[in-house]
Write a structure and sequence with these properties.
Blueprint: E1 12-14, H1 22-36, H2 47-62, H3 64-72, E2 84-85, E3 96-99, E4 102-105, E5 121-122, H4 124-133, H5 138-152, H6 157-183, H7 188-210
């Protein structure tokens, strides 16, 4: 109506790290499996642009030697349109509500078309985000990925996920670095982004070593 969305108010609380259990992981896996089969409205970012983003962000965030490591790696790089999906793009835990009727994913529309996303993309991008943002232990990771693969019938995910994990981390590293710089060290938000920058850096380096 007049350019506004009118929706029912839903009572709930954001999911916290200590509340990630099997029921939540199963819901998230089914949600992402649904997205994997939903019509992908939009055009994926060309793969060469995504690779360029990784190169620039890794070079500026970690140094040229890390970027060279990525360039030399024998890493499976799937085509941009290999499994195009209606990517969510916002998988942080506070984006999920625990309600009296179960879980609800909020802020789930149109991020595939904004300026901070690679466009409609392989659902492996969102799965990588879950692994990065939720602090899951190995059994929880295996459960989430196993549930998703079962529901979605996605047999090639293990080959695609390492690339998208690096891509997601490089993307978030650049995002956090820019936000921390723009907000400055004396603002609380600037300090929060500086903390995020350190976390993404510490997560990206082992991924690059692993390849």
């Amino acid at each position: 109506m007049h350019g506004f969305l009118v929706m029912e108010f839903v009572w709930g609380r954001p999911v916290a790290a200590g509340q990630v259990d099997a029921s939540f992981l199963d819901y998230a896996a089914r949600y992402l499996a649904h997205l994997a089969h939903a019509p992908a409205a939009g055009i994926p970012m060309p793969q060469e642009e995504l690779l360029r983003m990784i190169e620039v962000n890794v070079t500026e965030g970690l140094g040229a030697s890390w970027s060279h490591r990525f360039a030399r790696a024998n890493l499976h790089i799937p085509p941009a349109d290999a499994v195009p999906a209606a990517t969510d793009g916002r998988m942080m835990l506070h984006e999920w509500l625990r309600t009296g009727r179960g879980y609800l994913k909020t802020d789930a529309v149109d991020h595939a078309a904004d300026h901070f996303s690679p466009g409609c993309r392989d659902t492996a991008w969102d799965l990588a985000a879950c692994l990065v943002e939720w602090g899951l232990d190995r059994p929880q990771q295996n459960f989430l990925l196993g549930q998703y693969r079962t529901v979605a019938g996605d047999t090639t995910l293990p080959r695609r996920l390492p690339f998208y994990t690096i891509a997601y981390l490089a993307h978030r590293l650049g995002y956090a670095a820019l936000a921390a710089q723009m907000l400055g060290p004396h603002s609380l938000d600037g300090q929060r982004f500086q903390t995020l920058l350190a976390r993404y850096t510490s997560r990206l380096q082992p991924e690059l070593v692993r390849i």
